[in-house]
Specification:
- The longest helix is centred in the last third of the chain and has 34 residues.
- α4 links the parallel β8 and β9.
- The strands form three sheets. Strands 7-14-13-12-11-10-9-8 form an eight-stranded parallel β-sheet. Strands 2-3-1-4 form a four-stranded antiparallel β-sheet.
- α3 runs parallel beside α4 and α6 packs across α7.
- Helix content is about 35%, strand content about 20%.
- By secondary structure, it is of the alpha/beta class.
- The structure holds phosphoenolpyruvate and manganese (II) ion.
- The site of manganese (II) ion has 5 residues, from loops.
């Protein structure tokens, strides 16, 4: 059960304490207060966990400060929309807003390699006003003999460069709990010149201890990537692990699923699930066309297949794109063949904005159509 408080309610004020006092008569029901910063208001929700069937909804509904009370099913308790009863969960991090309407492109190399390459990349991004990057410092690789990333050693200079070029958020994969600590320490030592979104890679999509670790801190938002061999339901449940630990600043990322049916692409593109995730959950949705397609093949219309896949996701309402760019893909230590180059950047940004415009037009058309249908 969730009690949604009115927007102007002080979480420390008399209304909340009155509610908590009332709920004390149900000793097995635990309460958890969530303050979520939305784009335009601070929403506070009280979660009731445990046997809530005896808790009278109508009594709570009539108490001061309560906007509405929602009984939620056991599925996706915190991240779920529960049949449209709950609003989306938006959040702001380091000046950037993430919700089911926002739109950001996170670009950069698969793995951080040289300072020169990282600087060249960021400099170009700054020229296009892009303040959101992807940079892998810790890389999970299929072969133990492949480059595993520079780890914490590269963090000081990556963060310093990000500050220099106005990068506000870097999506950075973490493989174990200590990596969160290393990132936190490096950011603090550098004076927080940028922010980090902790990325859970597809290989760790059901590493429940890691999910709990990113969920039990609330400094950094989380970019959760769908498990390559998991159903959507399994991946959304994994996401629920993060939220259930307290951190609901999560973006859900579709990145393709592994099956030979996707050949010759690296994975089968699953971007038809963008609207599904937006319907079932309150989370912003990201697409990763790079790892879905996995090759830099050009279609006969002169458009890269990666662009085509990105367009499918954006036209369907994706809120974020995670995409690999490298100034010199032939030198990249990881995933060079699928990286776009700086020469592709202008084309990509323009192509994406066409798709985003198309999505907005489609959304406006749908809203006009539903008005007409209601009136007729
Ligand atoms: C990545 O984004 O660098 C990555 C490794 O992606 P995935 O976990 O989806 O394979
Ligand atoms: Mn990669």
């Amino acid at each position: 059960m969730i009690i949604i408080l009115k927007p102007d309610i002080d979480p420390d004020g008399s209304e909340v304490s009155q509610l908590l006092a009332y709920l004390k008569q149900f000793p097995d029901v635990k309460t958890k207060l969530s303050g979520i910063k939305g784009t335009s208001r601070v929403v506070s929700e009280i979660y009731l966990i445990g046997p809530t069937h005896n808790v009278p909804k109508d009594v709570l509904q009539s108490m001061p400060g309560v906007e509405r009370v929602v009984r939620v099913s056991s599925k996706y308790r915190q991240i779920g929309k529960h049949g449209g009863q709950l609003d989306e969960l938006g959040f702001e991090y380091n000046g950037i807003v993430f919700n089911q309407n926002s739109f950001h492109i996170f670009m950069g190399p698969c793995a951080v390699d040289t300072l020169e390459n990282v600087e060249t990349m960021m400099k170009h991004m700054a020229e296009y006003g892009i303040a959101t990057a992807r940079m892998g410092a810790y890389k999970p690789r299929t072969s133990p003999y492949d480059f595993q990333g520079h780890g914490k050693n590269c963090l000081p200079w990556v963060f310093e460069l990000a500050g220099k070029y106005g990068i506000k958020v870097i999506a950075m994969e973490v493989l174990k709990e200590e990596h969160i600590e290393e990132i936190h320490n490096a950011l603090q030592e550098a004076g927080n010149p940028t922010g980090v979104m902790l990325q859970i890679g597809t290989r760790n999509a059901q590493n429940f201890e890691l999910l709990k670790a990113v969920g039990s801190q609330d400094i950094y938002p989380v970019l959760y990537k769908r498990g390559m061999g998991l159903t959507l339901e399994e991946s959304l449940n994994a996401c629920e692990y993060i939220a259930s630990e307290g951190n609901r600043n999560i973006v859900f990322c579709l990145r393709g699923v592994k099956t030979r049916l996707g050949d010759p692409h690296r994975n089968l593109v699953d971007f038809a699930h963008v609207p599904v995730v937006k319907r079932l959950t309150r989370l912003p949705v990201c697409i990763d066309p790079t790892h879905s397609v996995g090759t830099k093949d050009l279609a006969p219309d002169g458009i890269y297949e990666i662009f085509h896949a990105a367009s499918q996701g954006v036209v369907a309402g994706a809120n974020m794109i995670l995409i690999e760019f490298h100034p010199r893909p032939e030198e990249a230590l990881c995933d060079g063949p699928q990286a776009l180059t700086l020469q592709d950047m202008d084309h990509f940004i323009q192509d994406v904005s066409i798709s985003r415009r198309a999505y907005k037009e489609r959304r406006d058309l749908a809203s006009r159509m539903s008005l007409t249908k209601m009136q007729s």
